[in-house]
Design goal:
The complex is a heterotrimer of chains A (about 280), B (about 350) and C (about 280). Chain B is α+β, with helices and mostly antiparallel strands and about 350 residues long. Chain B is about 35% helix and about 20% strand. Chain B has 2 domains: about 210 residues, no CATH class; about 120 residues, no CATH class. Chain B contains 12 helices and 12 strands. By secondary structure, chain C is of the alpha/beta class. Chain C folds into 2 domains: about 130 residues, no CATH class; about 120 residues, no CATH class. In chain C, α2 links the parallel β3 and β4. Classes of the chains: A alpha/beta (about 280), B alpha+beta (about 350), C alpha/beta (about 280). At the A-B interface, β4, α2 and β13 of A face β4, β5, β11, β12 and α10 of B.
Chain lengths: ~280, ~350, ~280
């Protein structure tokens, strides 16, 4: 990496879409078109968004590298920067630096089944790896996506589901903790639905993301189903500032989530203390 | 080659350096605070104190550093890089402080990401160190593989006081050699007996350091001690200020924030941060993996003597003992890590 | 006195009159002590009291979530405990105050008697539940001569002096964190939404921090000097806290920590209130 590692690319917002009450998806494109063409990442990595005059914040790429004519982030309104992002309009200028962190090791998963389990906004972190796998479906066997949220209202990317399901040997299972009128899918917590679906661990990798309480019970179900810790992969979130292991805050033991993660197997995580 | 120089001539060299560059050296103020400050004349140099109250770290790794200026206008945004750093001299620091730079150099050059704000400034910094004659009760540099009151790590030029007010001057880098060659008339060649005198100085000085820790053994104790009940009580006196981290020659954690002047102009600033602060790891939305004070206290010691060793094969500490002195409740790092069970 | 102190605390813990006791123990050399937290009655042997016991242990009363505490207090520290009781941080009956007679404490940095110890009116503690030792209070009242002297300087001189001091400040927040009355869980200096104080460290921001802190502790600060002695770069914060004490006394005839039922000057209004600026 040469040059100033803290200096962002200047980008413009080319599209904004409201996903749920507090989540919007933004598409960004670099002002320098050549830089946009050269810019690439791997599903699972993250970027640091710059709001000039406000500050920086970390977001994961929502689109896969196979669709890199723009950069997309789904942003929940929770902090100083994300609140300000929600005020922006198409054509506004932001900065982007990255990509940072490791990625989902798809190259090791060729020929396997992929099981995605996501809860709530956790799907934002899995959209890029889901769409990457769908775009390179020839490399994988069956793809199952189990996604749940508190209510049907809280599901992100509702408009994507039909496209995803159209891909050969791909199955979507949706659930809501509480149903609603017209809800044709499952009702119940994600771990319970996972148990009911009963996926086989044979030749399968489970990729999970969601709130800590969901992760805890999903892990238990997966282990009960016979998944081994190295067949389970997740992505972690911690407060980050630099993105490359220098600012010192996102460590769990000697590992920096920004540099050695954010993607970890459960085999790695189970030996780490609960400090993330 | 080693040289000799008298204390009077050191001041001459110092004045020559002041004429050419910005020189920071220990200076004492009206409140008896000794800090590295910009010298106007060599007579301001205060060489009598063992340690300055804060380190010289902030001369290379600024406490608040402007990364760039941001200007918005109708055509978009322009990012204006800061001026290139100027050449500076840090004069009269101690071997523990100089070694502190060596330790954080590695961090700022770590992995594929080179921090140019630091490395460019470091490249333009000459470090002239003075060996310690009178280590204090808080000193423990000899606990470290490279630590000693005469150690040269991180220094460009090392001055060791010998008998009769003379100093042995040894250059370890081109920058150090240049200080000598530019001011050759003030130096004379040292004889072999004087190199031996330095050995005697080292032995005498090291003997004054009362505590030597077995850091390898301590690391072994730390590894399984994350969940130890020890942390429940040992942190209690700690008030969780950042004094220990801000006076440390190796603590490097930082925050990046934006300072807005108006709607169109702002600047991106990096400021030192401290793991003792509650907001250090608190995420937007309020979740905080190190929410309680015990966890933050543990992190500081674990980082310095365990995690950093895993990543860099050396401790994030040079044994200067400033944190012990600066701590408002006199917490002793040596006791904390030795007591781990 | 140490033996007596140890026995007393052993008794309080054994009889469950206190869950924890806070006292002093030796730190890294003969000139330093540090706070000691005692839970086990068999662990009292390390407790000491001497002229290096500089910390104001009242600090910990708001930090420990315990029902019954015993705390070793110099006469001046008792004012802090009373102030915290006045602020309803805990109930009087939940803290056993062990007053220790004190001939003054020394600054570990200079080995000199703290300025507050000259003309001390509470060498012999007042208002404690238990009192150990004997000391004779000063016959002279607390002197504000140094503040009066500083007040005579021109605005420019004052500004120059404080600018220099706040240039030294490294914003480690030691002053705030050792302050017994700075117990806000979410200090203004750390808030980001909205951000009151940028993390950027420079003399102006540092000055802003200290000025706001001083405003916050006016009428509550007991001029205990904890902030002053904690400062790693020797900023004479005690000049500010002493000015607060002087103004409270002169403008409002108020003394922090003297009365657990008092209303501090800035939380009451009286038509006769002074209108001069406290800063």
């Amino acid at each position: 990496m040469t040059g100033n590692i803290y200096k962002p690319h200047i980008a413009k917002i080319i599209d904004i879409k409201i996903e749920t009450g507090d989540i919007k998806s933004f598409k960004f494109q670099f002002v320098d078109q050549a830089a946009q063409k050269e810019f690439t990442w791997k599903a699972g990595q993250f970027l640091i968004l710059n709001l000039f005059g406000i500050g920086e914040a970390v977001f994961t790429f929502a689109n896969p590298q196979t669709r890199n004519e723009y950069i997309e982030c789904s942003i929940r309104k929770v902090g100083l920067v994300s609140e300000a992002v929600h005020e922006l309009e198409i054509g506004d200028t932001v900065g982007i630096r990255g990509p940072y962190g490791n990625w989902f090791p798809f190259e090791k998963w060729h020929g396997k089944n992929l099981l995605y389990v996501a809860g709530g906004v956790g799907l934002a972190a899995l959209r890029s790896p889901i769409e990457f796998a769908l775009d390179t479906k020839q490399d994988f066997k069956n793809i199952t996506i189990l996604y749940g949220a508190r209510s049907p209202m809280d599901l992100c990317y509702k408009d994507k589901f039909s496209d995803w399901e159209k891909v050969k040997d791909t199955q979507m299972i949706l659930t809501a903790d509480k149903g609603a009128d017209g809800w044709k899918h499952k009702v119940g917590f994600v771990p319970a639905v996972l148990k009911e679906v009963h996926p086989s661990p044979k030749d399968t990798v489970a990729i999970i993301c969601g709130p800590p309480i969901m992760i805890k019970f999903v892990l238990k179900e997966l282990l009960d189903l016979g998944f081994t810790p190295d067949q389970i992969v997740t992505t972690l979130e911690m407060k980050m500032k630099c993105g490359f292991g220098k600012c010192g805050r996102c460590n769990v033991k000697h590992l920096y989530i920004c540099k050695d993660g954010p993607v970890f197997t459960y085999a790695q995580l189970k030996d780490l203390p609960d400090e993330y | 080659m080693a040289y000799l120089i008298t204390k009077e001539n050191i001041k001459e060299v110092l004045n020559a350096l002041i004429a050419a560059k910005t020189v920071y050296a220990p200076k004492k103020d009206a409140e008896d605070t000794v800090l590295f400050e910009k010298l106007v004349n060599a007579s301001e140099w205060h060489g009598d104190s063992l340690l300055t109250h804060t380190t010289a770290k902030d001369k290379v790794y600024l406490q608040s550093e402007r990364f760039f200026k941001i200007k918005k206008d109708k055509n978009g945004v322009t990012i204006e890089d800061p001026a290139e750093p100027e050449e500076i001299v840090i004069f009269g620091c101690r071997p523990c402080d100089a070694r502190g730079f060596d330790v954080i150099n590695k961090l700022f050059n770590w992995s594929d990401f080179v921090d140019e704000y630091y490395t460019k400034r470091m490249a333009k910094t000459t470090i002239i160190t003075i060996s310690c004659e009178k280590p204090e009760s808080t000193c423990f540099c000899t606990s470290f593989a490279k630590g000693s009151p005469v150690n040269e790590t991180g220094s460009d030029l090392l001055l060791t006081p010998l008998k009769d007010g003379k100093y042995l001057a040894e250059a370890y880098t081109e920058k150090g050699e240049k200080v000598i060659s530019d001011n050759l008339k003030y130096f004379s060649e040292a004889a072999e007996t004087e190199a031996k005198e330095k050995e005697a100085f080292k032995t005498a000085s090291e003997a004054k350091i009362i505590k030597k820790l077995d850091l390898a053994a301590i690391k072994k104790l730390m590894e399984p001690a994350f969940e130890s009940a020890y942390w429940e009580t040992v942190h209690l006196p700690c008030v969780k200020c950042g004094a220990c981290t801000f006076v440390c020659p190796t603590c490097y954690c930082f925050d990046i924030t934006e300072k807005a002047f108006d709607n169109m102009n702002s600047e991106r600033v990096r400021s030192w941060d401290t793991c003792m602060s509650e907001i250090f790891t608190r995420m937007a939305g309020g979740v905080n993996p190190r929410s309680d004070t015990k966890k933050r206290f543990r992190q500081r010691f674990m980082h310095k003597f365990n995690y950093h060793v895993d990543n860099f094969k050396e401790e994030l500490c040079t044994g200067c003992g400033r944190c012990i002195k600066a701590c408002p409740v006199s917490i002793d790092v040596r006791k904390v890590i030795e007591g781990i069970k | 006195m140490d033996k007596e102190l140890q026995e007393l605390i052993k008794k309080l813990l054994t009889e469950k009159k206190a869950e924890w006791a806070i006292g002093y123990e030796k730190a890294y050399d003969e000139f330093s002590t540090r706070p000691a937290f005692i839970i086990d009655p068999a662990d009292t042997a390390r407790l000491i009291f001497n002229k290096y016991c500089i910390n104001n242990l009242g600090l910990y009363l708001t930090k420990l979530k315990k029902n019954k505490l015993a705390v070793v207090c110099k006469g001046c520290d008792i004012a802090t405990v009373f102030e915290l009781i006045r602020e309803k941080q805990f109930k009087r009956e939940n803290v056993a105050i062990i007053g220790v007679a004190c001939e003054g404490v020394l600054d570990k940095r200079t080995n000199k008697l703290l300025e507050k110890c000259e003309n001390c009116q509470v060498k012999q503690p007042k208002g404690a539940d238990f009192t150990l030792g004997n000391a004779k209070n000063s016959e002279k009242p607390k002197s504000y001569a140094d503040v009066v002297e500083f007040e005579k300087k021109s605005s420019k001189e004052k500004l120059e002096f404080w600018n220099r001091q706040f240039e030294k400040c490294i914003r480690c927040y030691a002053c705030r964190n050792v302050c017994p009355v700075c117990y806000c869980p979410d200090c203004f200096a750390l808030r980001s939404m909205p951000e009151y104080l940028s993390k950027h460290v420079d003399a102006d921001k540092n000055k802003l921090f200290h000025m706001i802190r001083m405003q916050h502790v006016f009428g509550r600060c007991t001029d205990c000097k904890a902030c002053d002695t904690a400062c790693p770069v020797n900023i004479p914060l005690s000049m500010l806290t002493k000015k607060l004490a002087k103004d409270a006394k002169e403008l409002f005839n108020y003394e922090s920590g003297a009365d657990t039922d008092a209303r501090p000057p800035l939380s009451t209004y009286d038509e006769g209130d002074s209108e001069s600026d406290i800063m």
